[in-house]
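Inputs:
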Amino acid sequence: MSFWTEPRGVKSWLLTRDHKRIGVMYLVAVLVFLLLGGTFALILRLSLVEPDNALVSPHTYDKLFTHHGIVMVWLFMIPSIPSAFGNIMLPLMIGARDVAFPRINLASFWIFIAGAIVVLVALVAGGVDTGWTFYTPYSTSTPTATTCAAIGVFVTGVSSILTGINFIATVHTMRVEGLRWRDLPLFVWAIYATSIILVLATPVLGLALLLVAADHAWALGLFDPNTGGDPVLFEHIFWFYSHPAVYIMILPGMGVVSEVVSTASHRKPAWYGAIVFATIGIALVGFLTWGHHMFVAGMSTFDVGVFGILSMLVAIFSAIKVFAWTSTMYGGSITIATPILYVFTFIFLFVFGGMSGVAVATSSLDVHWHDTYFVVAHFHFIMVGGTMTAFLAALHYWFPKLTGKMYSETWGRLGCAAVSLGFIVTFTPQFLLGNAGMPRRYATYPAHFQWLHVVSTVGACLLAGGLVVTLVYLIAAIKNGKPAGANPWRSASFEWRSPSPPPPENFAEPPRWDRGAYDYGDAA
Amino acid sequence: MNELFRLALDLPPQASSVARHIDYLHYTVIGAAFLVAFLAFLVTVSFLVRFRERPGYTPRARSVPHSLEVVLASFTLVVFIVWWVIGFSQYRDIHRPPPGAIRIYVIAKQWMWQFVYPNGTNSEADLRVPVGQPVEVMITSRDVIHSFYVPAFRLKQDAVPGRITSLWFTAVTPGTYDILCAEYCGAGHSRMRGHVIAMAPAEYAKWAGGHGSAELATVGEQLAVKYGCLRCHTVDGTPHIGPTWRGLYNSLVPLSDGTLIVADDAYLTESMMDPTAKIVRAYPPIMPSYLGQLSGPEAASIVEFIRSLRGSP
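Outputs:
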């Protein structure tokens, strides 16, 4: 009697109000978009093997990197962990029957799909060549499908806001009796902080995109100096959302890491209070750092100084978390398995990626690195090395809970090794390309950059191979995996008290919060 | 040591007065990033091995003292703030030109760089500067956002339409250094390249003095005669076979499909290359295309000539 089979029928899935089914549909959708965005990335990498780019024309190349960015950011990264795993796990972790507003949850999913379809229509109907950043006045003057793409992203934003409101209300009102705020699992805190950003920042993106769409469709000249507009204004509005969006992408990943580290070490998270404080700190201070994307855009020197110091502050919150995770492992009893191996990759890549973020926040250094491959490498270390590895950790960690089956550990480790190695080989050379002065979004490039591009492309193929292998053995395990049992990781967290896979009503008996989510009986 | 680090990090030559100082900070920050990531790697690996679950192993009750974490976090914050102070003071320096700097205007457009020197001389693609003298570049764009980037100088500044942005530098070694566009600006973005040619001061003076200072608009006028533009377009305001050029630039033009368009650089250039795309109302669509005949700089010069035709003759 699991949620997979009860009730039966296609319609019972499409119109379900069960948070687990909605989460599963999100999971399938984001995996499809990950494959699509990844395919774009692979074509980009292959066409960069030659300085003169024989594979695709420069204009096609411009569209491909735009499509890669739009699909990965708005259709994979933003909904990946919050909408998929947040939906499935949040109610289970707080002992709830469902989210606070199940109908809105369903609406949010279909609005997301509608937005995604509009985006895909834009990609098919001529494509978009603006870059995912939609910088004006280029985006408003290009003949490509800016309007359609901007409206599509706007619609997915509506879905983000609804999901955010739903999660906030769920954490406030649906906690099982006896679960206090100070005992909330760290993944729940992470989703809560993420939801705050979703609700506060997404409307600003919506505004920016609607202005661009209107300007593009009717030539209003809102950001065009010839008609009294200001292109830099758009950059401000855009980054006011898009910098906090980075934390929408990474905070849920950090939440996953906190859970996996604690469960694998069988220990209460070290410095729980500091992690919560840092999570909320990132969500709030993250709103005040957007200007570090504009150090060479002609901002005043004073502004550069202010945004620089605030960026340093937000980095320290992340450092606190890294200290806390490693301290949690100290003295524990660590079960080595695929999820903790992904977390290990996460910590290494996140530390280096984070430090490279501090480097680009240092204003004089950023002048050289801005809009070069160094920045590309930096944010891929955070987005792919961080968020995607955390996503894969979550996928393996919660796989037995979700499906009731265990995946093959041998294949899991092989996949993890291929993904980690592939990632490092892909993006480390890009730091050097940035140092050497290779600007991003270049369809062709001076020949002396070639060898680094070739190495990077080899890594990208390995990374893609690792991801495909992972998908294959996970799908195989749904059918042929060994039964996992309710709690294969011997976790104290609440979601593992429900059977695997959980029944439609989540818990066989009405749950009681008689024991904490991190109660391993240790002294920490 | 400097040279070793520079080569290891694949950095271009240090050809401006600030490059070396910026690189020192670069080495420090990236060195620290490597060190910290390596430490994190070592610590997690050793913990995974030492504290792995195995028969006969009992986990420790003791945990890391909170004081250690406070110390680590505070130390990290102090290091970050020191980097901010150094980085920001360098940033301020490159935006405060010393008195007496040579002012050169940089005009970006899809997809070329144009430079205008104090004596009225123009150049395209190649920016000539004297070694050892401070040069302030005043940067703007004619169409979309571009970014003036000289890797060997470690300098970059966006070219924003409707604004002038600036920075300054002193070239320290004679030579030729790449200028790249660093802000995505359309299909020609990756080919929008140029060079800074840093010359010995005497050589520069000779070049600047000996270079005929023909204004861009004057060049445009000669080209308009050469290509026969003026046989159909007048410059005195009277309509002829085609619309007059007098007062045309940035004016509102009614098109045959009933819409209005601003006759900006983009429209004027398009009209030369694809004349039938937008036909001005009441004129026949008979102009031939100049695509492949006019080079980018030539088209820009003609636009510049049209721009100079303001007010009454």
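Remarks. The longest helix of chain B spans residues 19-50. Chain B has three domains: 2-52+64-94, 102-210, 216-308.
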